[in-house]
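Lab notebook, bench 4. We co-purified these components, and the gel suggests they stay together. Before we commit to crystallization screens, I want a quick structural picture of the whole thing.
Request: model the full complex, all chains together.
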Amino acid sequence: MTSDLPVLSLKGIRKTFGAILAIQDVSLDLGAGEIVALVGDNGAGKSTLIKIVSGVHRPTSGQIHLDGSAVVFSSASSARSLGIEVVYQDLALADQQPVYMNLFLGRELTIPPLALLNKSRMRKETQELVEELDVRIPSVRSTIRDLSGGQRQGVAIARATHWASKLVLLDEPTAALGVAETAKAEELILSLKDRNLAVLIVSHNLDQVFRLSDRICVLRRGRQIGVRETAATSKNEIVSMITGVD
Amino acid sequence: MSRIGVPKGFDLQKSVIYVGFFTIFLFFSFTLHDDGFLTTRNLTNIVLQTAPATIMAIGLVFVISAGEFDLSFGSAVAVSALAAAVVLQDYPMLVGVLAGIGAGTLIGALNGVLVAYLRLPSFLVTLATLGLFAGIARSMTNLRSIPVINDSFTGIFGSGKLASVPSLVIWTILAVAVGHFLYWHTRFGAHVLATGDNPRAAQVAGIRIERVRFLVLTLCGATAGLAGILYAGRLQAAKYTLGESDLMTVIAAVIVGGTALKGGKGSIIGALFGSLLMGMLNNGLILMGLSVSDQMIVRGLIILIAVAVSLRDTSH
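Here is the predicted assembly.
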Protein backbone atom coordinates (compact mmCIF):
# COMPACT_ATOMS: atom_id res chain seq x y z
CA MET A 1 0.00 0.00 0.00
CA THR A 2 2.79 2.40 0.82
CA SER A 3 4.20 4.26 -2.13
CA ASP A 4 6.03 7.49 -2.58
CA LEU A 5 3.19 9.04 -4.51
CA PRO A 6 0.93 11.23 -2.42
CA VAL A 7 -2.55 9.78 -1.90
CA LEU A 8 -4.12 13.11 -2.67
CA SER A 9 -2.50 15.85 -4.65
CA LEU A 10 -4.20 19.19 -5.31
CA LYS A 11 -2.59 21.37 -7.95
CA GLY A 12 -3.59 24.99 -8.49
CA ILE A 13 -7.17 24.54 -7.31
CA ARG A 14 -9.33 27.57 -7.99
CA LYS A 15 -13.05 27.94 -7.48
CA THR A 16 -15.32 30.83 -8.31
CA PHE A 17 -19.03 31.17 -7.70
CA GLY A 18 -20.09 33.76 -10.26
CA ALA A 19 -18.03 36.84 -9.51
CA ILE A 20 -16.97 35.55 -6.08
CA LEU A 21 -13.56 33.99 -5.79
CA ALA A 22 -13.86 31.27 -3.16
CA ILE A 23 -10.55 29.46 -3.61
CA GLN A 24 -7.48 30.80 -5.32
CA ASP A 25 -4.54 28.58 -6.24
CA VAL A 26 -4.43 25.93 -3.52
CA SER A 27 -1.84 23.17 -3.91
CA LEU A 28 -1.50 20.48 -1.29
CA ASP A 29 -0.19 16.91 -1.05
CA LEU A 30 -1.37 14.33 1.45
CA GLY A 31 0.50 11.09 2.09
CA ALA A 32 -0.86 7.81 3.41
CA GLY A 33 -1.01 7.78 7.19
CA GLU A 34 -0.71 11.54 7.34
CA ILE A 35 -3.07 13.98 9.04
CA VAL A 36 -3.19 17.47 7.55
CA ALA A 37 -5.22 20.19 9.25
CA LEU A 38 -6.96 22.87 7.26
CA VAL A 39 -7.28 26.06 9.29
CA GLY A 40 -8.48 29.57 8.63
CA ASP A 41 -11.09 32.08 9.66
CA ASN A 42 -14.75 31.85 8.71
CA GLY A 43 -15.06 32.35 4.98
CA ALA A 44 -11.45 31.38 4.33
CA GLY A 45 -12.58 28.64 1.94
CA LYS A 46 -12.07 25.53 4.09
CA SER A 47 -15.54 24.12 3.53
CA THR A 48 -15.38 24.88 -0.19
CA LEU A 49 -12.08 23.01 -0.44
CA ILE A 50 -13.53 20.02 1.44
CA LYS A 51 -16.50 20.04 -0.91
CA ILE A 52 -14.20 20.06 -3.91
CA VAL A 53 -12.22 17.09 -2.63
CA SER A 54 -15.41 15.21 -1.73
CA GLY A 55 -16.90 15.73 -5.18
CA VAL A 56 -19.72 18.08 -4.18
CA HIS A 57 -18.20 21.04 -6.08
CA ARG A 58 -16.05 20.91 -9.17
CA PRO A 59 -13.02 23.19 -9.22
CA THR A 60 -13.13 26.03 -11.77
CA SER A 61 -9.55 25.18 -12.63
CA GLY A 62 -6.74 23.06 -11.21
CA GLN A 63 -6.22 19.34 -10.91
CA ILE A 64 -6.92 16.62 -8.39
CA HIS A 65 -4.72 13.53 -8.42
CA LEU A 66 -5.47 10.38 -6.48
CA ASP A 67 -2.52 8.01 -6.14
CA GLY A 68 -0.86 9.82 -8.99
CA SER A 69 -3.67 9.72 -11.53
CA ALA A 70 -5.80 12.72 -12.41
CA VAL A 71 -9.46 12.40 -11.37
CA VAL A 72 -12.59 14.41 -12.04
CA PHE A 73 -15.45 13.83 -9.62
CA SER A 74 -18.88 14.17 -11.17
CA SER A 75 -20.60 13.83 -7.79
CA ALA A 76 -20.10 12.87 -4.17
CA SER A 77 -20.84 9.28 -5.18
CA SER A 78 -17.96 9.19 -7.62
CA ALA A 79 -15.54 10.49 -4.98
CA ARG A 80 -16.87 7.88 -2.58
CA SER A 81 -16.41 5.10 -5.08
CA LEU A 82 -12.74 6.10 -5.33
CA GLY A 83 -12.24 5.63 -1.59
CA ILE A 84 -12.88 9.11 -0.21
CA GLU A 85 -15.17 9.38 2.83
CA VAL A 86 -16.45 12.48 4.59
CA VAL A 87 -17.46 12.96 8.22
CA TYR A 88 -19.80 15.93 8.21
CA GLN A 89 -20.17 18.48 10.96
CA ASP A 90 -23.78 17.52 11.43
CA LEU A 91 -22.90 13.83 11.15
CA ALA A 92 -25.29 12.86 8.32
CA LEU A 93 -26.76 9.96 10.27
CA ALA A 94 -30.35 8.78 10.07
CA ASP A 95 -31.50 9.29 13.67
CA GLN A 96 -34.29 6.78 13.88
CA GLN A 97 -32.40 3.91 12.30
CA PRO A 98 -30.15 1.48 14.16
CA VAL A 99 -26.36 1.86 14.22
CA TYR A 100 -25.74 -1.00 11.79
CA MET A 101 -28.13 0.39 9.17
CA ASN A 102 -26.35 3.74 9.39
CA LEU A 103 -23.00 2.10 8.93
CA PHE A 104 -24.27 0.58 5.70
CA LEU A 105 -26.50 3.50 4.67
CA GLY A 106 -26.82 3.50 0.88
CA ARG A 107 -24.49 0.49 0.67
CA GLU A 108 -26.59 -2.18 2.31
CA LEU A 109 -25.39 -5.76 2.09
CA THR A 110 -27.81 -8.09 0.35
CA ILE A 111 -28.20 -11.80 -0.26
CA PRO A 112 -28.12 -12.58 -4.00
CA PRO A 113 -31.23 -14.25 -5.41
CA LEU A 114 -33.88 -11.81 -4.13
CA ALA A 115 -31.50 -9.06 -3.00
CA LEU A 116 -32.74 -9.34 0.57
CA LEU A 117 -31.02 -7.25 3.20
CA ASN A 118 -28.38 -9.28 4.99
CA LYS A 119 -29.08 -7.78 8.39
CA SER A 120 -27.22 -10.40 10.39
CA ARG A 121 -24.03 -9.87 8.42
CA MET A 122 -24.36 -6.08 8.66
CA ARG A 123 -24.78 -6.41 12.43
CA LYS A 124 -21.82 -8.74 12.67
CA GLU A 125 -19.51 -6.51 10.64
CA THR A 126 -20.63 -3.44 12.57
CA GLN A 127 -20.01 -5.25 15.85
CA GLU A 128 -16.49 -6.19 14.74
CA LEU A 129 -15.75 -2.66 13.63
CA VAL A 130 -16.96 -0.92 16.80
CA GLU A 131 -15.01 -3.40 18.91
CA GLU A 132 -11.89 -2.89 16.86
CA LEU A 133 -12.19 0.90 17.03
CA ASP A 134 -13.36 0.78 20.65
CA VAL A 135 -16.47 2.86 19.95
CA ARG A 136 -18.53 2.27 23.06
CA ILE A 137 -22.17 1.96 22.17
CA PRO A 138 -24.81 -0.09 24.01
CA SER A 139 -25.51 -2.24 20.95
CA VAL A 140 -25.26 -2.16 17.18
CA ARG A 141 -29.06 -2.35 17.26
CA SER A 142 -29.30 0.90 19.24
CA THR A 143 -31.13 3.71 17.52
CA ILE A 144 -28.88 6.69 16.76
CA ARG A 145 -31.08 9.13 18.66
CA ASP A 146 -30.60 7.09 21.84
CA LEU A 147 -26.83 7.65 21.68
CA SER A 148 -24.79 10.53 23.09
CA GLY A 149 -23.11 13.11 20.84
CA GLY A 150 -19.77 11.38 21.27
CA GLN A 151 -21.21 7.97 20.46
CA ARG A 152 -22.83 9.38 17.33
CA GLN A 153 -19.57 10.93 16.20
CA GLY A 154 -17.94 7.57 16.93
CA VAL A 155 -20.43 5.89 14.60
CA ALA A 156 -19.86 8.53 11.89
CA ILE A 157 -16.10 8.13 12.08
CA ALA A 158 -16.39 4.35 12.18
CA ARG A 159 -18.48 4.50 9.02
CA ALA A 160 -15.87 6.62 7.24
CA THR A 161 -13.13 4.28 8.45
CA HIS A 162 -14.99 1.24 7.20
CA TRP A 163 -15.55 2.57 3.69
CA ALA A 164 -12.54 4.80 3.03
CA SER A 165 -9.71 3.13 1.20
CA LYS A 166 -7.64 6.28 0.66
CA LEU A 167 -8.79 9.48 2.26
CA VAL A 168 -11.01 10.66 5.11
CA LEU A 169 -12.24 14.26 5.24
CA LEU A 170 -13.39 15.54 8.61
CA ASP A 171 -15.30 18.83 8.81
CA GLU A 172 -15.25 20.14 12.40
CA PRO A 173 -15.65 16.62 13.79
CA THR A 174 -15.70 17.60 17.46
CA ALA A 175 -17.43 20.99 17.31
CA ALA A 176 -20.49 19.69 19.15
CA LEU A 177 -18.74 17.43 21.67
CA GLY A 178 -17.77 17.73 25.34
CA VAL A 179 -14.20 17.38 26.64
CA ALA A 180 -14.18 13.63 27.28
CA GLU A 181 -16.05 12.94 24.05
CA THR A 182 -13.61 15.08 22.10
CA ALA A 183 -10.68 13.11 23.53
CA LYS A 184 -12.34 9.88 22.48
CA ALA A 185 -13.04 11.18 18.98
CA GLU A 186 -9.42 12.36 18.65
CA GLU A 187 -8.24 8.88 19.56
CA LEU A 188 -10.40 7.54 16.75
CA ILE A 189 -9.03 10.08 14.30
CA LEU A 190 -5.46 9.17 15.25
CA SER A 191 -6.29 5.51 14.67
CA LEU A 192 -6.96 6.37 11.01
CA LYS A 193 -3.20 6.85 10.63
CA ASP A 194 -2.59 3.24 11.61
CA ARG A 195 -4.89 2.21 8.82
CA ASN A 196 -2.66 4.06 6.39
CA LEU A 197 -5.40 6.49 5.43
CA ALA A 198 -4.73 10.09 4.52
CA VAL A 199 -6.76 12.49 6.67
CA LEU A 200 -7.74 16.09 5.97
CA ILE A 201 -9.34 17.73 8.97
CA VAL A 202 -10.99 21.13 9.31
CA SER A 203 -10.93 22.45 12.85
CA HIS A 204 -11.27 25.77 14.61
CA ASN A 205 -9.65 24.37 17.70
CA LEU A 206 -5.90 25.07 17.42
CA ASP A 207 -5.05 22.93 20.45
CA GLN A 208 -6.72 20.05 18.69
CA VAL A 209 -4.94 20.84 15.44
CA PHE A 210 -1.60 20.67 17.24
CA ARG A 211 -2.54 17.42 19.00
CA LEU A 212 -3.62 15.64 15.83
CA SER A 213 -1.92 16.95 12.73
CA ASP A 214 1.40 16.30 11.03
CA ARG A 215 1.11 19.40 8.90
CA ILE A 216 -1.06 22.51 8.93
CA CYS A 217 -2.37 24.28 5.84
CA VAL A 218 -3.54 27.85 6.43
CA LEU A 219 -6.14 29.55 4.23
CA ARG A 220 -7.13 33.20 4.33
CA ARG A 221 -9.84 34.64 2.09
CA GLY A 222 -9.50 31.75 -0.32
CA ARG A 223 -5.73 32.01 -0.61
CA GLN A 224 -3.25 29.47 0.61
CA ILE A 225 -1.01 31.36 3.04
CA GLY A 226 1.31 28.46 3.72
CA VAL A 227 1.82 24.91 4.93
CA ARG A 228 3.82 24.19 8.09
CA GLU A 229 5.15 21.04 9.75
CA THR A 230 3.22 20.93 13.02
CA ALA A 231 6.34 19.99 14.99
CA ALA A 232 8.24 22.93 13.59
CA THR A 233 5.76 25.71 14.09
CA SER A 234 3.98 27.46 16.94
CA LYS A 235 0.47 28.53 17.68
CA ASN A 236 1.55 32.15 17.43
CA GLU A 237 2.84 31.63 13.93
CA ILE A 238 -0.33 29.86 12.82
CA VAL A 239 -2.55 32.52 14.40
CA SER A 240 -0.69 35.30 12.64
CA MET A 241 -0.98 33.39 9.36
CA ILE A 242 -4.72 32.97 9.88
CA THR A 243 -5.35 36.59 10.78
CA GLY A 244 -2.68 38.23 8.64
CA VAL A 245 -1.57 40.27 11.67
CA ASP A 246 1.98 39.94 13.00
CA MET B 1 -23.26 -11.45 21.02
CA SER B 2 -24.97 -8.23 20.12
CA ARG B 3 -27.59 -8.97 22.76
CA ILE B 4 -25.25 -8.04 25.60
CA GLY B 5 -26.38 -4.91 27.33
CA VAL B 6 -29.25 -4.16 24.98
CA PRO B 7 -31.48 -1.62 26.66
CA LYS B 8 -34.78 -2.85 25.35
CA GLY B 9 -36.17 0.63 24.77
CA PHE B 10 -39.92 0.55 25.08
CA ASP B 11 -41.27 2.08 21.91
CA LEU B 12 -44.58 3.61 22.97
CA GLN B 13 -45.46 4.69 19.46
CA LYS B 14 -45.14 1.18 18.09
CA SER B 15 -46.66 -0.70 21.03
CA VAL B 16 -49.70 1.44 21.67
CA ILE B 17 -51.65 -0.12 18.80
CA TYR B 18 -51.48 -3.65 20.20
CA VAL B 19 -52.44 -2.55 23.71
CA GLY B 20 -55.24 -0.40 22.27
CA PHE B 21 -56.45 -3.13 19.94
CA PHE B 22 -56.76 -5.80 22.61
CA THR B 23 -58.21 -3.44 25.20
CA ILE B 24 -60.98 -2.39 22.85
CA PHE B 25 -61.45 -5.95 21.68
CA LEU B 26 -61.94 -7.11 25.28
CA PHE B 27 -64.19 -4.15 26.01
CA PHE B 28 -66.49 -4.96 23.09
CA SER B 29 -66.33 -8.69 23.84
CA PHE B 30 -67.86 -8.10 27.26
CA THR B 31 -70.18 -5.18 26.63
CA LEU B 32 -71.47 -6.36 23.27
CA HIS B 33 -71.52 -10.07 24.01
CA ASP B 34 -75.29 -10.28 23.67
CA ASP B 35 -75.26 -8.22 20.51
CA GLY B 36 -73.22 -10.84 18.66
CA PHE B 37 -69.85 -9.04 18.56
CA LEU B 38 -67.88 -12.19 19.27
CA THR B 39 -69.49 -14.40 16.65
CA THR B 40 -67.24 -15.77 13.91
CA ARG B 41 -69.57 -14.24 11.39
CA ASN B 42 -69.24 -10.74 12.84
CA LEU B 43 -65.47 -10.95 13.29
CA THR B 44 -65.01 -12.24 9.73
CA ASN B 45 -67.17 -9.40 8.54
CA ILE B 46 -64.87 -6.88 10.19
CA VAL B 47 -61.87 -8.34 8.37
CA LEU B 48 -63.74 -8.41 5.05
CA GLN B 49 -64.95 -4.84 5.40
CA THR B 50 -61.53 -3.52 6.30
CA ALA B 51 -59.66 -5.33 3.50
CA PRO B 52 -59.55 -2.36 1.07
CA ALA B 53 -58.60 0.08 3.85
CA THR B 54 -55.84 -2.25 5.08
CA ILE B 55 -54.37 -2.46 1.60
CA MET B 56 -54.47 1.33 1.14
CA ALA B 57 -52.85 1.70 4.57
CA ILE B 58 -49.89 -0.41 3.43
CA GLY B 59 -49.19 2.02 0.59
CA LEU B 60 -49.59 4.98 2.90
CA VAL B 61 -47.08 3.54 5.42
CA PHE B 62 -44.42 3.67 2.69
CA VAL B 63 -45.35 7.24 1.72
CA ILE B 64 -45.37 8.61 5.27
CA SER B 65 -42.20 6.69 6.19
CA ALA B 66 -40.47 8.41 3.28
CA GLY B 67 -41.47 11.79 4.74
CA GLU B 68 -44.24 12.47 2.23
CA PHE B 69 -48.02 12.36 2.39
CA ASP B 70 -50.80 11.10 0.17
CA LEU B 71 -54.44 12.11 0.21
CA SER B 72 -55.29 11.23 -3.37
CA PHE B 73 -55.88 7.53 -2.70
CA GLY B 74 -59.33 8.63 -1.51
CA SER B 75 -60.38 9.22 -5.11
CA ALA B 76 -57.86 6.92 -6.84
CA VAL B 77 -59.87 4.03 -5.36
CA ALA B 78 -63.04 5.10 -7.15
CA VAL B 79 -61.28 5.81 -10.46
CA SER B 80 -59.62 2.37 -10.32
CA ALA B 81 -62.85 0.56 -9.48
CA LEU B 82 -64.70 2.38 -12.25
CA ALA B 83 -61.92 1.74 -14.78
CA ALA B 84 -62.04 -1.97 -13.96
CA ALA B 85 -65.86 -2.07 -14.11
CA VAL B 86 -66.04 -0.26 -17.45
CA VAL B 87 -63.35 -2.46 -19.04
CA LEU B 88 -64.90 -5.66 -17.65
CA GLN B 89 -68.06 -4.97 -19.63
CA ASP B 90 -66.27 -5.79 -22.86
CA TYR B 91 -63.03 -7.52 -21.96
CA PRO B 92 -61.90 -10.55 -19.95
CA MET B 93 -61.01 -10.45 -16.27
CA LEU B 94 -57.28 -9.95 -16.59
CA VAL B 95 -57.71 -6.83 -18.73
CA GLY B 96 -60.11 -5.41 -16.17
CA VAL B 97 -57.68 -6.09 -13.32
CA LEU B 98 -54.85 -4.44 -15.24
CA ALA B 99 -57.06 -1.44 -16.03
CA GLY B 100 -58.01 -1.02 -12.37
CA ILE B 101 -54.54 -1.39 -10.88
CA GLY B 102 -53.08 0.53 -13.81
CA ALA B 103 -55.37 3.50 -13.22
CA GLY B 104 -54.36 3.71 -9.55
CA THR B 105 -50.68 3.28 -10.41
CA LEU B 106 -50.83 6.07 -13.00
CA ILE B 107 -52.44 8.44 -10.51
CA GLY B 108 -49.69 7.57 -8.04
CA ALA B 109 -47.02 8.07 -10.70
CA LEU B 110 -48.48 11.49 -11.55
CA ASN B 111 -48.23 12.46 -7.87
CA GLY B 112 -44.72 11.03 -7.86
CA VAL B 113 -43.53 13.10 -10.79
CA LEU B 114 -45.01 16.29 -9.35
CA VAL B 115 -43.51 15.68 -5.91
CA ALA B 116 -40.16 14.09 -6.68
CA TYR B 117 -39.12 15.83 -9.86
CA LEU B 118 -41.03 19.13 -9.81
CA ARG B 119 -40.42 19.37 -6.06
CA LEU B 120 -43.94 20.36 -5.09
CA PRO B 121 -45.09 19.54 -1.55
CA SER B 122 -46.82 16.15 -1.53
CA PHE B 123 -49.59 17.22 0.83
CA LEU B 124 -50.76 19.96 -1.55
CA VAL B 125 -50.17 17.95 -4.71
CA THR B 126 -52.25 15.03 -3.45
CA LEU B 127 -54.91 17.33 -2.05
CA ALA B 128 -55.25 18.72 -5.57
CA THR B 129 -55.21 15.32 -7.28
CA LEU B 130 -57.73 14.04 -4.70
CA GLY B 131 -60.17 16.67 -5.93
CA LEU B 132 -59.16 16.29 -9.57
CA PHE B 133 -59.78 12.55 -9.69
CA ALA B 134 -62.92 12.77 -7.55
CA GLY B 135 -64.24 15.03 -10.31
CA ILE B 136 -63.06 12.66 -13.04
CA ALA B 137 -64.71 9.71 -11.26
CA ARG B 138 -67.98 11.62 -11.30
CA SER B 139 -67.83 12.80 -14.90
CA MET B 140 -66.55 9.44 -16.19
CA THR B 141 -69.89 7.80 -15.41
CA ASN B 142 -72.32 10.69 -14.99
CA LEU B 143 -72.62 9.74 -11.32
CA ARG B 144 -73.99 6.32 -12.23
CA SER B 145 -73.05 3.03 -10.70
CA ILE B 146 -71.44 0.52 -13.09
CA PRO B 147 -72.38 -3.12 -12.44
CA VAL B 148 -69.73 -5.84 -12.55
CA ILE B 149 -71.11 -9.13 -13.85
CA ASN B 150 -67.90 -11.04 -14.49
CA ASP B 151 -68.26 -14.07 -12.19
CA SER B 152 -64.62 -15.04 -12.04
CA PHE B 153 -63.74 -11.43 -11.16
CA THR B 154 -66.33 -11.10 -8.40
CA GLY B 155 -65.20 -14.48 -7.09
CA ILE B 156 -61.47 -13.83 -6.98
CA PHE B 157 -61.75 -10.22 -5.82
CA GLY B 158 -64.96 -10.41 -3.85
CA SER B 159 -67.16 -13.12 -2.45
CA GLY B 160 -65.10 -16.17 -3.43
CA LYS B 161 -63.32 -18.57 -1.13
CA LEU B 162 -60.19 -20.66 -1.34
CA ALA B 163 -60.28 -23.74 0.95
CA SER B 164 -63.03 -21.98 2.90
CA VAL B 165 -60.92 -18.85 3.43
CA PRO B 166 -62.64 -15.78 1.95
CA SER B 167 -60.67 -14.28 -0.93
CA LEU B 168 -60.58 -10.82 0.69
CA VAL B 169 -58.82 -12.36 3.70
CA ILE B 170 -56.29 -13.95 1.35
CA TRP B 171 -55.69 -10.64 -0.43
CA THR B 172 -55.21 -8.91 2.91
CA ILE B 173 -52.71 -11.50 4.13
CA LEU B 174 -50.84 -11.41 0.82
CA ALA B 175 -50.64 -7.63 0.74
CA VAL B 176 -49.52 -7.41 4.37
CA ALA B 177 -46.88 -10.10 3.84
CA VAL B 178 -45.49 -8.51 0.68
CA GLY B 179 -45.62 -5.03 2.23
CA HIS B 180 -43.90 -6.11 5.45
CA PHE B 181 -41.24 -7.94 3.50
CA LEU B 182 -40.56 -4.99 1.20
CA TYR B 183 -40.48 -2.62 4.16
CA TRP B 184 -38.07 -4.54 6.37
CA HIS B 185 -36.08 -6.86 4.20
CA THR B 186 -35.22 -5.01 1.02
CA ARG B 187 -32.86 -2.21 0.11
CA PHE B 188 -35.89 -0.25 -1.13
CA GLY B 189 -37.46 -0.35 2.33
CA ALA B 190 -34.21 0.74 3.97
CA HIS B 191 -33.94 3.65 1.52
CA VAL B 192 -37.54 4.68 2.20
CA LEU B 193 -36.80 4.86 5.93
CA ALA B 194 -33.52 6.71 5.44
CA THR B 195 -35.13 9.23 3.06
CA GLY B 196 -37.90 10.02 5.53
CA ASP B 197 -35.53 10.07 8.48
CA ASN B 198 -32.84 12.40 7.12
CA PRO B 199 -33.05 13.19 3.40
CA ARG B 200 -29.70 14.93 3.36
CA ALA B 201 -27.92 12.03 5.06
CA ALA B 202 -29.62 9.65 2.64
CA GLN B 203 -28.52 11.74 -0.30
CA VAL B 204 -24.89 12.05 0.73
CA ALA B 205 -24.93 8.29 1.30
CA GLY B 206 -25.76 7.89 -2.38
CA ILE B 207 -29.48 7.12 -2.03
CA ARG B 208 -31.50 8.57 -4.89
CA ILE B 209 -34.13 10.25 -2.77
CA GLU B 210 -36.13 11.60 -5.73
CA ARG B 211 -36.52 8.08 -7.03
CA VAL B 212 -37.60 6.87 -3.58
CA ARG B 213 -40.23 9.63 -3.38
CA PHE B 214 -41.51 8.82 -6.85
CA LEU B 215 -41.72 5.11 -6.08
CA VAL B 216 -43.55 5.39 -2.74
CA LEU B 217 -46.24 7.60 -4.26
CA THR B 218 -46.58 5.27 -7.25
CA LEU B 219 -46.80 2.28 -4.91
CA CYS B 220 -49.50 4.02 -2.89
CA GLY B 221 -51.47 4.59 -6.10
CA ALA B 222 -51.10 0.90 -6.94
CA THR B 223 -52.44 -0.17 -3.54
CA ALA B 224 -55.38 2.20 -4.03
CA GLY B 225 -55.91 0.47 -7.39
CA LEU B 226 -55.97 -2.96 -5.75
CA ALA B 227 -58.32 -1.63 -3.07
CA GLY B 228 -60.61 -0.32 -5.84
CA ILE B 229 -60.70 -3.73 -7.47
CA LEU B 230 -61.59 -5.40 -4.18
CA TYR B 231 -64.44 -2.94 -3.71
CA ALA B 232 -65.69 -3.60 -7.24
CA GLY B 233 -65.45 -7.35 -6.63
CA ARG B 234 -67.17 -7.34 -3.27
CA LEU B 235 -69.96 -4.92 -4.18
CA GLN B 236 -70.24 -6.29 -7.75
CA ALA B 237 -70.40 -2.68 -8.87
CA ALA B 238 -68.31 0.49 -8.94
CA LYS B 239 -69.40 3.99 -8.02
CA TYR B 240 -67.72 7.36 -7.65
CA THR B 241 -68.33 7.34 -3.88
CA LEU B 242 -66.03 4.36 -3.27
CA GLY B 243 -63.13 5.15 -0.97
CA GLU B 244 -64.41 8.60 -0.02
CA SER B 245 -65.08 7.64 3.57
CA ASP B 246 -61.83 5.68 3.78
CA LEU B 247 -59.57 8.73 3.73
CA MET B 248 -59.75 9.45 7.44
CA THR B 249 -59.94 5.77 8.41
CA VAL B 250 -56.79 4.86 6.51
CA ILE B 251 -54.76 7.81 7.78
CA ALA B 252 -55.88 6.99 11.33
CA ALA B 253 -55.00 3.31 10.87
CA VAL B 254 -51.48 4.18 9.73
CA ILE B 255 -50.83 6.69 12.52
CA VAL B 256 -52.23 4.59 15.38
CA GLY B 257 -50.32 1.70 13.82
CA GLY B 258 -47.06 3.33 14.85
CA THR B 259 -45.93 5.12 11.71
CA ALA B 260 -44.29 8.43 12.60
CA LEU B 261 -45.84 11.44 10.85
CA LYS B 262 -42.38 12.92 10.42
CA GLY B 263 -41.16 9.87 8.55
CA GLY B 264 -38.30 7.46 9.14
CA LYS B 265 -40.26 4.98 11.19
CA GLY B 266 -43.30 2.83 10.70
CA SER B 267 -44.91 -0.59 10.74
CA ILE B 268 -46.92 -2.57 8.21
CA ILE B 269 -48.22 -5.02 10.83
CA GLY B 270 -49.10 -2.02 13.00
CA ALA B 271 -51.08 -0.53 10.11
CA LEU B 272 -52.94 -3.86 9.71
CA PHE B 273 -53.95 -3.76 13.38
CA GLY B 274 -54.72 -0.05 13.06
CA SER B 275 -57.07 -0.82 10.20
CA LEU B 276 -58.67 -3.74 12.08
CA LEU B 277 -59.06 -1.46 15.10
CA MET B 278 -60.85 1.14 12.98
CA GLY B 279 -63.11 -1.56 11.53
CA MET B 280 -63.78 -2.99 14.96
CA LEU B 281 -64.64 0.44 16.35
CA ASN B 282 -66.98 1.04 13.47
CA ASN B 283 -68.63 -2.31 14.02
CA GLY B 284 -68.78 -2.00 17.81
CA LEU B 285 -70.15 1.53 17.74
CA ILE B 286 -72.90 0.45 15.34
CA LEU B 287 -73.76 -2.54 17.56
CA MET B 288 -73.85 -0.17 20.53
CA GLY B 289 -76.45 1.82 18.63
CA LEU B 290 -74.43 5.02 18.18
CA SER B 291 -75.53 7.32 15.40
CA VAL B 292 -73.32 8.00 12.39
CA SER B 293 -72.42 11.41 13.79
CA ASP B 294 -71.41 9.92 17.15
CA GLN B 295 -69.24 7.39 15.33
CA MET B 296 -67.48 10.20 13.52
CA ILE B 297 -66.84 12.00 16.79
CA VAL B 298 -65.35 8.90 18.40
CA ARG B 299 -63.13 8.24 15.39
CA GLY B 300 -61.98 11.86 15.38
CA LEU B 301 -61.03 11.59 19.05
CA ILE B 302 -59.06 8.41 18.38
CA ILE B 303 -57.02 10.21 15.71
CA LEU B 304 -56.33 13.06 18.13
CA ILE B 305 -55.03 10.63 20.75
CA ALA B 306 -52.89 8.90 18.13
CA VAL B 307 -51.33 12.15 16.96
CA ALA B 308 -50.66 13.19 20.56
CA VAL B 309 -48.83 9.93 21.24
CA SER B 310 -46.92 10.21 17.98
CA LEU B 311 -45.67 13.73 18.68
CA ARG B 312 -44.86 13.02 22.31
CA ASP B 313 -42.57 10.22 21.24
CA THR B 314 -40.65 12.18 18.62
CA SER B 315 -39.87 15.09 20.92
CA HIS B 316 -37.90 13.18 23.57
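Residues 1-8 of chain B have pLDDT under 50 and may be disordered. Worth comparing against the SEC data before the next meeting. Chain B touches chain A through 29 residues (CB under 8 Å).
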